[in-house]
Amino acid sequence: MAFIDVKIPPLGESIVSGVLAKWHVAEGAVVKKDQPLFELETDKITSEGAAEAAGRISLKVQPGTEVKIGQVVAVLDTEASATAGAAPATPSSGTTTEAKSATVAPSTTSHPSSPAVRRVAEETGIDPSSLPGSGKGGRVTKGDVLAASETPKSEGKRDEKSAAPAVPAAALPASPAVVSAPTASGRQSRRKLTPLRKRIAERLVQAQHEAAMLTTFNEVDMSAVMGLRAKYQDDFVKKNGLKLGFMSFFTKAVVQALKEVPAINAQFAGDEIIQNHYFDIGVAVSTEKGLMVPVIRNADQLGMAEIEKAIGEAAKKARDGKITLADLEGGVFTITNGGIFGSMLSTPILNSPQSAILGLHAINDRPVAVNGQVVIRPMMYLALSYDHRLVDGKEAVTFLVKVKQAIEDPARLLLAI
Fold this sequence. Notes:
By secondary structure, this protein is α+β, with helices and mostly antiparallel strands. It has three domains: 3-77, CATH 2.40.50.100; 115-192, no CATH class; 211-415, Chloramphenicol acetyltransferase-like domain (Chloramphenicol Acetyltransferase). Helix content is 26%, strand content 25%. The strands form five sheets. The protein has a six-stranded mixed sheet with strand order 9-18-17-16-12-15. The protein has a four-stranded antiparallel sheet with strand order 1-8-6-3, with no helix packed on it. A hairpin with a 4-residue loop joins strand 4 (36-41) and strand 5 (46-50). Helix 1 (115-124) packs parallel to helix 2 (142-150) and helix 5 (246-260) crosses helix 8. The longest helix is centred in the middle third of the chain and has 18 residues, at 223-240. The radius of gyration is 26 Å and the shape is elongated. The termini are far apart. 36% of the residues are buried.
């Protein structure tokens, strides 16, 4: 037989370990070359590992296990026949089928019980397979069995459908496992922070502690941009195969404003100020694993269609878990759009070490005064958070006004004025 080790691939010099969040294949499945095998969560990104060759797979670690870069997590038998009783390659989320490998312990349930769980189960007479697990990947823990033993018998065994209500994935913090079941009281549930979510939390707190952050606001009339989109959308789609969105307008407006107010395009480095002369713009993307900010390279050299395409591709990679560390590094400025979730106003937190971030919000019809008359216009609030150590109020306000002017009169983007 010919065997190939499936190892955790290198993801960058700063990443040394991660959590194997889930397997996309079952134990004993026959996989194809380049087929996704597992999902790996690190403190910076979530990525997938693919098969180097076709063969039958033998899993060596359980989902939810912390693994190191280069560690062997499975073995491929490349001489295995694709038709010789292959197990179905069904994805697993925090679980695998019955293990055929000695390192993946067999079990009568979908989640192998630990010795402690089996011991308590024998003492209490409770079947672990009948309990919703609160451990990683939905596994039943010793605490679950003890809690069940203390539950009044009149409650009976809870039907699977009567368990905790499902929560939309987008509303959950990043986690390689399903939502843990409530405790006996039904008022709480717990789960461990993933490396990615933990790192996001650390960076947000760090940004607030290390920068003199201040936010300034303005509002923008979206009539002109909405009119352009309505007028040219069909032609734009026919020519480019994708829709014209608002983000390309704001990206262009930000680049132009950065050129006119270079202090925004600078950052601290110890006792020095680094002035950036390039325009790699980060666009925040919400994923099930948390907020990620892929970077649109050389945005000043891209047309509207190229910006829309780059944003769409980056967002898809982030949501599919295929984003790389290189996709997230090197941005000079960030745009985040809470408006897609209905946010009216917010104060975005800096994406360190950048000195500023622009927050977009929901477009709502509001009465405004135009030439002495009260009219209804589609308005959006803009919020610019910035590091006051580096950026003065005059520069921040000027930058925001430049963005406002470009959006309200898009011809400025063509004329660069």
